[in-house]
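Quick illustration, no need to memorize.
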Amino acid sequence: MADELKGKRVAFLFTEGAEQAEVTEPLGAVQEAGADVDIVSLAEGDVQMWKHFDKGDTIKADKAVKDAKASDYDGLVLPGGVANPDQLRADKSAVKFVRDFFEQDKPVGVICHGPWMLVETGVAKGRKVTSWPSLQTDLRNAGAEWVDQEVVVDNGLVTSRNPDDLPAFNAKIVEEFAEGKHQQKVAA
């Protein structure tokens, strides 16, 4: 089953301080499933990833977020790491890029501290999500229903808590990205 995402294009948005495993393992999963991937960051060039509190490897960003458009992609992944989403949510281009995926009903995978971007973009309201436990108050205050589960799927939004959840997270993002656009299911 290596072709589920053949012909699909997925963006990974992160910056300095992203948790390395939350970048590299989902990246490997979507590439193995056949997707083309762009690494999007605040600027092109090398991005320093972290392994918890220690510097990890660097990875090359293909595109600056100010030059990226959600309409060019079939899905988005937002890795965690404490410093990463905290910096992204202060960047107007990053916030717009993420919000556009939701406005275009495209699937999004978010793990660990990444859901801070859901708060910043205003898309958390009415969603069932999970995250690193310290974000639960922020997410609830933004109108989300926070639960402590390995992986949660809500209308194309896949959320997980931490690197231990990566196998379940990776399987679900591949599944959601393969399905494509998601329509709100509103009772008539």
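DSSP finds six helices and twelve strands in the chain.
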